[in-house]
UniProtKB/TrEMBL annotation:
Protein's gene: dennd3a
Start and stop residues of the WD repeats: 1022-1066, 1201-1236
Region (Disordered): 78-107, 471-493
SMART domains: dDENN, DENN, WD40
GO MF, one annotated term: guanyl-nucleotide exchange factor activity
Chaperone in keyword set: no
Organism: Salarias fasciatus
Gene3D superfamilies: 3.30.450.200, 3.40.50.11500, YVTN repeat-like/Quinoprotein amine dehydrogenase (2.130.10.10)
Name of the protein in question: DENN domain-containing protein 3-like
């Protein structure tokens, strides 16, 4: 049988007092010899674990284990009560007397292998097993078991008191029945349900229903009742992650199992608001997920566990509080009853406080929570249906739990939102020292302690793996466009002047003030003190006036919850009844699937998942695989890979041959096998998920390769070309290696310069003259200038003089206005002092500053900034300015670290743009300069540029595919990055906007991935193709049903129903690598390397267009085609030819026009915009990419654009107003062109 994930029930265990002890004590009680409040040692009395039923003895296949694994089992030895059910009337006095001797024999119980029952009796009775002379109320508590690997199992315990005489029914003493009319004695039993999932409320409801049955039950029926109850629970399937919950009727209650929100989220089936009722909001700040041992209630005999030399969370009864406080050290003691916190070693608690701004935001949110259900009920009438009232309460609790999870997540994001800025993904390094240095002094103790924990290490590992979890989603949603842009630039980390102005950085002496203003302003809706309102709140976001809500952090659209009701339980211990139950469930799920419209794909996925589970457990393996296969088209995120692998491996030969005759199952099985081979290959090569390294300064001399890695890990700069130039600068005049001492000095100066610049205090009168996004990166010493005495400040846009005395602003120059920068000398008495002279466009007098020994350095830096600005303006590419700024700051650090006569010469090695400007003037042709509007660099986060594979424009968004399935989405209004995701691990060949919420992406791995534009998730896949998907097209006729077409390299074309994602037709064409498909006027046009085919929609070939005569026999192949149906023309270009061929659709024997593209060796992409055709290619005389604009009527080249340093690989149009072009890996940029 295939292995399945755990079901609701792992085991049901009954714990209580031994029968022989109870008998003896009852006799003493009848004789009034029993002491009060007698305690007994509890033991395991019963263990019930699946499977509960199997096929008849002549069958070779046991039934699946009722939604639980076929569990490996072991023996558990417990005392056996012999003849416990034999009627007592027939016993003689001797037999009765000898019973105590025989009852000490043992019984071997079979239990699941990973279930440890040794400590369970104590945990079920944490206060001890106490007999009572009166009936007590049933009570419930929860258990959590943690194994060595951190895996958790959960338990819900119900304590139920039964009269001892009912436990001894039919027993005689001295020839007479016991008289039950005498004073009664009661003993507790504990029924514990153990589950792999924390369904605390649901299992508590189940136990409540069980106790209703147990109260009137005879002792002889006690075990059988619990066994049947356990067997029923074993039939319950767990809901898949998402919006579908499962409910079942246990009578008298309808029990609901809520689903997890997504694959990575835990099950939440507990009232999360209870701590808010016990503690003040400031006490509840506990971020991240607990991964260490957790024991809700320790038994009295387990208090020594509190001495464990590790981190833990453990609870015990309040009566042990004084004892624990006296006997332990360094424990934090939380008194839940009184809502206060103590320390076991002192009266004061030496715990670092959570960062104030984040804590204030959390408290403000928590104060808005509606924690009292009575307020929800006050406007409603009295309910008469218990299940309806319970459902109403569940809905209220679910909403409240969601808000609590949201504000807790927001707290964690606010505390750790800057961590990703200090990570190097390529080398998996976290620069912890730099992270700590940039924290507020008041918060550093907190962060130091947190950074040492295993929890934080796991958090870092997820961030370095770019895990797409709730933290990353909220963190991204909380980033503004400006912050999101800055996160992907090469500009070294600096706080914006608009941020610094709120503190002036003079507040280093007042960290409390600095914390609340600087960090607080960046948090959403954080209330400010009234004294700070004017300076901290901008007009665009009046934080103090906005209404606080508890769930403003993660705004993800919540899907309506659906509840699937299971059929009524059958007699659970009869095989054929259980099989009929499974068949009924499959039928009900089939009806639910039929009634769900295709657009509700998420809900369909949950129904298919559940039906797959039921089919698996009832041995319908092929039906189960078909259901799981359906998940690719509905929600691939919940695809149960391990379960499907297990199913495939367990297929007998007969079923395997049946599967091979069903194409969709054959595809699924081959994919599973392929994944298994890839997994084995990875395991064989020893590839494992990398750990996390902390950045450390080098301890030995470094050659170039080691130096590149070290600089990238340090976070100074990632670009390899820049690092190579830095290496040359630091090794001027000696052997080509950098020593550890030199690098330490360089790194220290870099960081100190950064810190000094951040301490600049700019008054409001100065801030009025610079932009909010500007940062001061370098400040000179106080010098005399031609405009007064002061310090020269360098930002990324300008130079200005910060005058002394009354601080003032004097504009020196914006870099684009500079005309001359040179080193000069100014007379002073009999001396000549080195000075820097600047000539600015439009100003009569030059600006001169007596920078003395700093002159040569400032000359280099200003020239580099000037050159960077000039080149950035020419190429409409702001990245050149960012690189120039990095070069200038590196020059400063190099000069400071070398301190020698060669320091300036060494720094000049980094003057990359100034040298480029002097040696080879980067003049941009006039036509190009007029048409080019802007450039985007999708490879900014990477050490080297990556080729742009595909471009797609959808309303308001630009979709960019780069290597390895990485997709980046840019806002088309600001061209800023708003989203990044990975679609498979292979290169994407094509993208298509199918409707308002779907983008299809064809991949080299033969899969079509579907991304939701609204949710920005890729959880659906079309897996029917057998080779790489090369083309996608959409039926454009107005009144036809929406149909999409896809083609793959080996010649297959598939026709898709967009609404159902089903293949309507498919056919195969004979050709050399099918590259693209187009739909026009009732037929399809398919382009391969050797021909273009017009095909009827049925798949039959209409006619074929071959390569032009002059290309036959050469290496030329079709690169791209373009249909102009209104002109009845077909345009084609070849990947190895510099001409465009124009064909008439009705006569394709020869081109009607050939248009030569000057200085072009080949083209691979072509689009129509208005009455123009844009062709992307590569130049003959150089490898620079070119774009040719052709007139569709005159068939002439209108413009030739030079915008890339590598071939043009992709083109797309943005509403016919702009054309966007992407280039190969030596350029890797996207150019935005204006359409005339």
């Amino acid at each position: 049988m295939a292995e399945l994930p755990s079901g609701l029930l792992e085991a049901c265990v009954v714990v209580g007092a031994p029968t022989d002890k109870l008998r003896d004590l009852y006799q003493l009680h009848q004789q009034n010899k029993l002491k009060e409040a007698l305690s007994l040692e509890a033991e395991v009395l019963q263990v019930h674990a699946p499977p509960f039923v199997s096929k008849e003895a002549n069958s070779s296949q046991p039934i699946g284990p009722a939604f639980s694994r076929v569990q490996r089992r072991r023996s558990f030895i417990k005392k056996k009560r012999r003849d416990r059910d034999r009627p007592a009337e027939g016993l003689s006095n001797g037999e009765a007397a000898s019973r105590s001797e025989t009852s000490s024999a043992t019984e071997d119980i079979s239990v699941p292998k990973d279930l440890d029952l040794i400590a369970l009796p104590q945990l079920c009775f944490p206060g001890g097993l106490q007999l009572s002379t009166e009936q007590r109320e049933d009570s419930y508590h929860f258990l959590v078991f943690t194994d060595l690997f951190g895996n958790r199992t959960h338990g819900v315990v119900a304590q139920h008191y039964r009269a001892v005489q009912s436990c001894q029914e039919g027993v005689v003493q001295n020839g007479h029945r016991w008289n039950s009319a005498k004073t009664r004695l009661f003993t507790p039993f504990a029924v514990c349900i153990i589950s792999k999932f924390p369904y605390y409320n649901a299992l508590k409801d189940c136990l409540s229903c069980l106790l209703v049955q147990l109260r009137p039950a005879r002792q002889a029926d006690f075990e059988e009742t619990i066994r049947e109850f356990s067997a029923r629970l074993s039939l319950v399937p767990l809901p898949p992650p998402g919006q579908l919950h499962v409910s079942f009727n246990l009578r008298p209650l309808q029990v609901v199992l809520p689903s997890r929100e997504d694959q990575d989220s835990p099950v939440i089936d507990i009232d999360l608001h209870l701590p808010f009722l016990c503690f003040s909001h400031t006490v509840l700040l506990q971020p991240l997920s607990w991964q260490q041992p957790y024991v809700p209630v320790l038994a009295r005999g387990m208090l020594d566990f509190l001495m464990a030399p590790t981190a833990f969370l453990m609870g015990c009864h309040i009566s042990h509080f004084e004892e624990v406080a006296a006997e332990t050290e360094d424990l934090i003691l939380v008194n839940v009853d009184e809502g206060i916190i103590h320390s076991s070693c002192s009266e004061t608690i030496d715990l670092p406080a959570i960062p104030l701004a984040a804590a204030d935001s959390f408290v403000s949110r928590a104060e808005c929570l509606q924690l009292h259900y009575d307020l929800e009920l006050c406007h409603l009438g009295a309910g008469t249906d218990a299940n309806a009232l319970r459902s109403q309460r569940r809905d209220w609790q679910r909403r409240l739990n969601s808000q609590i999870q949201n504000i807790a997540l927001e707290l964690v994001v606010n505390i750790f939102r800057n961590v990703p800025d200090f990570l190097n993904h390529e080398h998996r390094v976290f620069n912890s020292e730099e992270f700590l240095r940039t924290r507020d002094p008041a918060d550093q103790l907190f962060y130091k302690k947190v950074l040492e924990t295993h929890i934080f290490h796991s958090f870092l590992r997820d961030r370095l793996s770019r895990k797409r979890d709730t933290f990353s989603r909220m963190e991204q949603s909380m980033r503004g466009h400006g912050n999101r842009n800055r996160a992907v630039t090469e500009t070294p980390r600096r706080a914006l002047m608009s941020d610094l102005s709120k503190t002036g950085y003079s507040s280093y002496t007042s960290p409390e003030s600095r914390l609340s203003k600087r960090l607080g302003a960046s948090l959403p809706n954080l209330e400010q003190p009234t004294t700070d309102a004017a300076s901290a709140i901008t007009p665009t976001r009046p934080n103090s006036l906005r209404k606080m809500t508890p769930d403003i952090g993660l705004k993800s659209p919540k899907k309506a919850v659906k509840i699937f009701r299971l059929p009524e339980f059958p007699p659970p211990l009869a095989y054929h009844y259980v099989q009929n139950y499974y068949s009924d469930m499959v039928g009900s799920l089939g009806k639910a699937i039929s009634a769900t419209p295709p657009e509700e794909s998420s809900l369909l996925a949950r129904y298919h998942y559940l039906r797959g589970l039921v089919n698996t457990v009832s041995n319908r393996r092929l039906d189960a695989l078909e259901d799981f296969q359906s998940l690719y088209k509905t929600d691939a995120d919940i695809f149960p890979s391990q379960m499907v692998k297990s199913l495939v491996d367990s297929l007998p030969d007969g079923e395997r041959s049946q599967a091979d005759r069903r194409p969709e199952l054959k595809r699924l099985i081959s994919r599973v096998k392929r994944d298994q081979e890839r997994e084995r290959a990875c395991n064989g090569s020893g590839q494992e998920e990398g750990g996390v390294k902390r950045f450390q300064l080098p301890k030995k001399y470094m050659q170039l390769e080691e130096f590149v890695k070290c600089v990238q890990e340090s976070g100074i700069v990632k670009d390899q070309g820049t690092i190579h130039r830095l290496f040359d600068a630091l090794t001027v005049g000696h052997q080509k290696q950098v020593g550890p001492d030199l690098f330490r000095v360089f790194y220290t100066i870099w960081k100190e310069t950064e810190a000094e610049a951040q301490e600049v205090c700019l008054p409001a009168s100065v801030l009025e003259h610079i932009e909010a996004t500007e940062c001061v990166f370098k400040l000179s010493s106080s010098v005399k200038t031609s405009r007064g005495v002061g310090k020269i400040a360098m930002t990324q846009r300008r130079l200005f003089l910060l005058t002394e005395g009354q601080p003032g602003y004097v504009e020196v120059a914006q870099y684009r206005d500079l005309e001359e920068v040179k080193v000069s000398s100014a007379p002073f008495l009999l001396l000549r002092i080195p000075s820097l002279k600047l000539r600015v466009r439009g100003r009569k007098d030059a600006f001169e500053a007596n920078l003395k020994t700093e002159t040569e350095l400032w000359n280099l830096m200003v020239k580099e900034m000037w050159a960077g600005r000039s080149i950035a303006d020419q190429h409409k590419d702001p990245q050149y300015m960012q690189q120039a700024l990095t070069n200038a700051l590196l020059m400063d650090a190099v000069v400071g670290s070398l301190q020698s006569s060669k320091a300036i010469y060494a720094a000049s090695k980094l003057a990359h743009f100034d040298r480029m400007k002097m040696e080879v003037p980067m003049m941009v042709p006039k036509t190009t300069a007029e048409t080019l509007k802007h450039k985007i660099n999708p490879s900014l986060e990477l050490a080297a540029p990556q080729a742009v594979d595909v471009l797609l424009y959808t309303p308001g968004q630009l979709w960019v595919s780069v290597s390895g399935g990485k997709v980046m989405v840019f806002d088309a209004s600001s061209w800023s990055l708003i989203h990044t995701c990975h679609v498979g691990n292979s290169r994407l060949n094509c993208m298509l906007g199918v409707d308002q919420d779907q983008v299809w992406m064809g991949s080299e791995d033969s899969v079509i991935y579907i991304i939701s534009i609204v949710a920005m998730v890729c959880n659906r896949q079309l897996t029917e193709h057998r080779a790489e998907v090369t083309g996608l097209a959409l039926e454009t006729e107005k009144y036809s049903q929406k149909v999409a077409y896809s083609c793959s390299a080996e010649g297959s074309v598939m026709v898709w129903d967009v609404s159902t994602l089903q293949v309507k037709r498919h056919f195969r064409l004979s050709c050399d690598r099918l590259q693209s498909v187009y739909c026009s006027s009732g037929s399809l046009w398919c382009c391969s390397r050797d021909s273009v085919m017009e095909v009827w929609r049925t798949g039959s070939l209409k006619h074929r267009v071959n390569l032009p005569e002059q290309h036959k026999g050469s290496t030329a192949t079709f690169g791209s085609i373009l249909l102009l149906p209104e002109r009845e023309e077909l345009w084609s270009v070849c990947s190895d030819s510099g001409e465009v061929c124009v064909w008439h659709i009705k006569d394709t024997s020869r081109p009607i026009q050939r248009v030569a593209l000057q200085d072009c060796t080949g083209s691979t992409c072509m689009i129509k915009v208005k009455n123009q055709v844009w062709v992307g290619g590569v130049g003959r005389s150089s490898t620079k990419g070119k774009i040719y604009i052709l007139d569709t009527e005159r068939h002439q080249v209108l413009k030739e654009l030079h915008g890339h340093s590598d071939k043009v690989t992709a083109l797309c149009s943005a509403e016919d107003r702009y054309v966007l072009s992407g280039a190969g890996k030596h350029d890797g940029k996207i150019a935005i062109w204006k359409v005339e």
